[in-house]
Amino acid sequence: MKAQGKLKVFTKERGAEIGDLFGIFFEDINHAADGGLYAELVRNRSFEFDPIDHPDYHPLTAWDKVERGHGCATITVEASKPIYPRNKHYVVIDILAEGDGVGISNRGFNSGIAVRPGETYFFSCYARRDSSFEEKVRVALESVDGQVHGLTEITVDSSEWKKYEAIIQAEAADLSGRLTIVTKGRGKLYLDMVSLFPSHTFRNRLNGLRRDIAEIIADLKPKFMRFPGGCLVHDGSLHPDDRNSMYRWKNTIGPVEQRPARRNNWRYHQTLGLGYYEYFQFCEDIGTKPIPILPAGYDPHHQRIAPIEELQPWIDDALDLIEFANGDPATPWGAIRAELGHPEPFGLEYIGIGNEEQGEPFFERYEYFHRAIKGKHPEIKLINSSGPFSAGETYERGWKSARDNGSDYVDEHYYMSPEWFLAHHRRYDKFPSSGPKVFLGEYASIGNTYYNALAEAAYMTGLEKNAHAVGLACYAPLLCNADYVNWKPNLIWFNHHEVFGSANYYVQKLFMNHLGDRLLKIEAEGFKQPAEATVPSIGGAITLEADANAVRYRDIRLVNNETGETMDYGDRVVDLTDTAEARAAGTAHAAFGLGVTEWKDYTLYAKAQKMSGPKGLKIAFGKKDDRNHLSWEVGWYQNQDSVLVSAVNGRGSVLTQSQFTVEDGVEYELALHVAGRRVRAHVDGRLLHDVVDELPVIEPIYYSATIEESTGDVIVKVVNLQEEEVATHVSLADCKEAPLTIEVHSLSGHALDEENSFEFPARISPASRTIHSEKREFVYRFPKYSVTIMRIR
Question: Of 790, 793, 763, 759, whose CA–CA distance to 776 is shortest?
Fold first, then answer.
């Protein structure tokens, strides 16, 4: 078998330690916690749903009144005599006529409660009753039409709040089940904290986790878990007792009935039943290190900023968390951890301050956290933030803060097209080995296809080969309930009874399960290099646009910088509108075309003014169609940034960013200079952007090598993104003479647009086999479009 090239692995030439390189990021987005990993089956169990969570919510969301026979009741929600003041609402069933029973029924999440035959369920509630103590309360799992799948009874025997518990044994399967609570008698029945858990949670814990989701996460074998967010951490008010407060960890521990309800910034309700103690416990259960992320008293989305003189409580929260996780039971917060059932420390090593923050208020406050934490706990590794962009003003400011303060890591976030990942797979090659290391805390190519997974695998070989500079990396988001989607793509998809890993999941699993402890030197030679193609300049249509607003452009000129030729639009004033009112009336006019240019070096000049609306100014250029173009957006997203975006097949990548807010009525002079693939953008003479839109050049193969020191296994990772197999001579250059046993795990044989699904959950998943070589070298054919992991021993 003739090889097309050679991979030489030097088993005795060790490089950087791999450390905790690949892990996971959990955020309660897409109902990842409530209705997901957190195994509670009752939705709105404490009647705390509120329009502050979502405009459609109310205290009886997911609950229905039940009146059987000639029964009649009124169902109301009160707050005058709560169990605990931080969860003040409870339901009142006022029995007007008992009939065959009256009460309430809960629809659960998704299409209902997934009832499994033979499963036992742990029911609990708080209840009180003002009369008819002898009457029992019937608790059942039922179908939509009232067929009973499992039944129990409790006797509410007090006019004061008491907790009642019971077991329900299910006898039938139903994916649209209901939890029904029905009673007879006279007077009123009061209920709160109505809860139903499957008895078989992960590790069979009370207040536990959904077993199938927890297990598919555990199967990844991640080195760390970053939690609880995400924008969820810092998007909220400054006061910890507010319903819409920033995520405050102290609100999430202790008895669940005492944890306050919280507005989740992804527009739903968060019970906090899955709190910090449960996060730490889950990390311990699956053998991964916890990386909690704490707010810094700054909400960049709404510019809520804790004054410096009021920052100490926020710093104390961080110090107290370290004590909660690691402190001796004799310490105040160590004692609380011990009281919760865990006298041993959790072994916290990392803490992140802030989540993709931008703006000077964050960096000013970070310094206070850094000094206080390092002063008391120098062993804790601190993670700074560089914002949600891969390059630009905020990114550079974050790295400056990290270097100035001596941060251990800088948290980088970016979601890009697969083409961006392929074009930048050498991104970290020139990063230094000294100073702060990279924590790639959120990344994903945009999509869950096999092609996305391949692009990410190629990129991950670059992360691994640069372990001197990249210390931690995790795909995001981790989980998505398919019926409550806030964000795509996602690593793991589920509904209320099934779960599957995406193609991206199996790439992550391969890399995490076969990580290794140290880099090995690896060289490629003899491969046919990609033909050196002429890099096309950015040519195509140019349009001036409005985006959810009304804008005006004038003094428009397009100049060929090589010839001096000018397309002058003279005195033309272009008024564009894309407001909600205009769209509703059918009068929106959102774009004005300037024609098509294939000039290689040109500048567009215009004066622009935002008349109204939340966003700013937008120019599309290099436009092939609506899915393939570049755009300059001044006043992007929340009108806080100027960005340059490259869209490939409808997937946009923010190439660079500067902070900029467009004021209503102010006229700005814009200059957009395109030369080849380099783009420079000025506003009022100020250079905001200077970036090259790089195109991917597919390498013959992408590869890395590590050694697992406990076993001596040499681990070689190879990604082939070519349309043909690549026969490769693999050599362990300084290894003792064989024979060698090679354990091979691979993804291959799939169309690039294929995805996993509930119907075909493992369509794209690894195949494994073992091969042998009598020598310390062998030839292997890496299939086209494949990811291959070799364990050589």
Answer: 793
* pLDDT mean over 297-307: 94
User: What is the 8-class DSSP label of residue 320?
Assistant: H
Q: What is the pLDDT of residues 382-438, one digit of tens each?
A: 999 999 999 999 999 999 999 999 999 999 999 999 999 999 999 999 999 999 999
pLDDT tens digit string along 173-207? 999 999 999 999 989 999 999 999 999 999 999 99
- In eight-state DSSP terms, residue 637 is T
- Residue 253's CB is within 10 A of a number of other CB atoms, namely 20
In one-letter notation, the amino acid at residue 442 is E
**Active site residues per annotation:** 356
Rounded to an integer, what distance in angstroms lies between the CA atom of residue 278 and that of residue 201? Answer: 13
Residue 642 in this model has a pLDDT that exceeds 70: yes
- Tens of pLDDT along 711-749? 999 999 999 999 999 999 999 988 767 799 999 999 999
- Do 446 and 651 meet the contact criterion of CB atoms below 8 Å apart? yes
Q: How far apart are CA 714 and CA 706, in angstroms?
A: 6
CB-based contact 580:642 (threshold 8 Å): no
Residue pair 168/152 in contact by the 8 Å Cβ criterion: yes
Does the CA dihedral 132-136-141-144 come out positive or negative? Answer: negative
Structure tokens at 655: 């190439």
Collapse the DSSP code of 544 into the 3-class scheme (helix H, G, I; strand E, B; otherwise coil) and give the result. strand
**pLDDT tens-digit readout, 303-349:** 999 999 999 999 999 999 999 999 999 999 999 999 999 999 999 99
Cα–Cα dist 441/433, whole Å: 19
Question: Hey, what are 149's tokens?
Answer: 């799948």
Specify the DSSP class assigned to residue 34: B
Rounded CA gap, 705 and 9, in Å?
7
Sequence-distant (6+) residues with CB within 8 A of 244 are 52, 236, 237, 262, 263
For residue 258, the SS3 value is helix
Contact (CB, 8 A) for 630 and 679 = yes
The closest alpha carbon to 246, from 321, 290, 301, belongs to 301
Nearest 10 degrees: Cα torsion 29, 34, 35, 36: 70
Cα separation, 248 vs 229, whole angstroms: 12
- Residue 133 confidence (pLDDT) above 80: no
**Strand duo 702-708 + 713-720: pairing:** antiparallel
Predicted TM-score (pTM) of the model is 0.97
User: Which DSSP state fits 736?
Assistant: P
- 447 in helix, strand or coil? coil
Residues pairing with 516 in the sheet:
none
pLDDT category of residue 132 using cuts at 50, 70 and 90? low
Q: What are phi and psi of 784, to 5 degrees?
A: -60, 150
pLDDT per position as a tens digit, 542-569 = 999 999 999 999 999 999 999 999 999 9
Residue 534: pLDDT over 90? no
Closest CA to 409 of 461, 366, 462, 469: 469
Asked if 693 and 686 touch (Cβ cutoff 8 Å), the reply is: no
Chain centroid to CA 229 = 7
Single-letter code of the amino acid located at 317: D
- Alpha-carbon gap, residue 607 to 552, rounded angstroms: 8
Cα distance between residue 189 and residue 66, in whole Å: 14
